[in-house]
């Protein structure tokens, strides 16, 4: 089994839900990088975006990633945009296996429809925003991924089974 397992993918792909279950199944620590960031700053990510902008948030996110990459045998759910900064990509690649949880824009819309906390979705046209993010980020997720799991039409259990089978 790899040192760490990094879950990457768009918002609503299931990184936190699948990550928690995967960590229990593999008897590993689960770490959500967004939660760590919120715990450290004492404020919500939306507040960081508001006060420091996306660049300020991304700086903090990179610092957290550097620290979490030193973990031993953890399942780490990352923020959807962590791959945008080139500096983060080798940190992910060199410190574990990258599992890309893929989700269509329709699935993302469905799974995030009641979410008021995601700063990038505070827009009049969520579909257009998600399409733009997918166009920018999906090629990077695919390039980095050691394992790709399609989460659209399958249960968390099915996704878990696929991940575990491919990790061996």
SSE topology:
Blueprint: E1 5-8, H1 15-26, E2 29-32, H2 33-41, H3 45-68, E3 74-77, H4 88-94, E4 97-102, H5 105-112, H6 126-144, E5 147-150, H7 156-167
Parallel strand pairs: 1-3, 1-4, 2-3, 4-5
Principal-axes shape call: globular
CATH architecture level-2 label = 3-Layer(aba) Sandwich
| Cα-atom radius of gyration | 15 Å
Q: What is the averaged pLDDT score?
A: 90
CATH superfamily: P-loop containing nucleotide triphosphate hydrolases
Distance, first to last CA: 6 Å
Any idea of the CATH topology?
A: Rossmann fold
The CATH class name reads: Alpha Beta
Q: Which strand-content bin applies to the residues? A: 5-15%
Unreliable segments (pLDDT under 50, ≥5 consecutive)?
none
Our count of helices gives: 7
Q: Please, how many domains?
A: 1
Q: How many beta-strand runs?
A: 5
Short description:
The protein has helices spanning 15-26, 33-41, 45-68, 88-94, 105-112, 126-144, 156-167; strands at 5-8, 29-32, 74-77, 97-102, 147-150. By secondary structure, the protein is an alpha/beta fold. The longest helix has 24 residues, at 45-68.
Tell me about this structure.
The chain has 168 residues and is of the alpha/beta class. It has helices at residues 15-26, 33-41, 45-68, 88-94, 105-112, 126-144, 156-167; strands at 5-8, 29-32, 74-77, 97-102, 147-150. The chain has one domain: P-loop containing nucleotide triphosphate hydrolases (Rossmann fold). It is built from seven helices and five strands. The protein has a five-stranded parallel β-sheet with strand order 2-3-1-4-5, with helices on both faces. The longest helix is centred in the middle third of the chain and has 24 residues, at 45-68. The N and C termini lie close together (6 Å). The model has no long low-confidence stretch (mean pLDDT 90).
């Amino acid at each position: 089994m790899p040192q760490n397992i990094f879950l990457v993918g768009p918002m609503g792909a299931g990184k936190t839900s699948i990550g928690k279950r995967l960590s229990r199944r593999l008897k590993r620590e689960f770490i959500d990088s967004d939660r760590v960031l919120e715990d450290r700053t004492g404020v919500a990510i939306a507040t960081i975006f508001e006060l420091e902008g996306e660049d300020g948030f991304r700086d903090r996110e990179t610092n957290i990633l550097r620290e979490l990459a030193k973990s031993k045998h953890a399942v780490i759910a990352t923020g959807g945009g962590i791959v945008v900064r080139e500096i983060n990509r080798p940190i992910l690649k060199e410190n574990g296996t990258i599992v890309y949880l893929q989700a269509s824009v329709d699935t993302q819309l469905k799974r995030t429809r009641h979410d008021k906390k995601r700063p990038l979705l505070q827009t009049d046209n969520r579909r257009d925003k998600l399409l733009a993010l997918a166009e920018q980020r999906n090629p990077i997720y695919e390039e980095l991924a050691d394992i790709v799991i399609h989460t659209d039409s399958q249960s968390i259990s099915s996704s878990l089974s696929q991940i575990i089978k491919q990790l061996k």
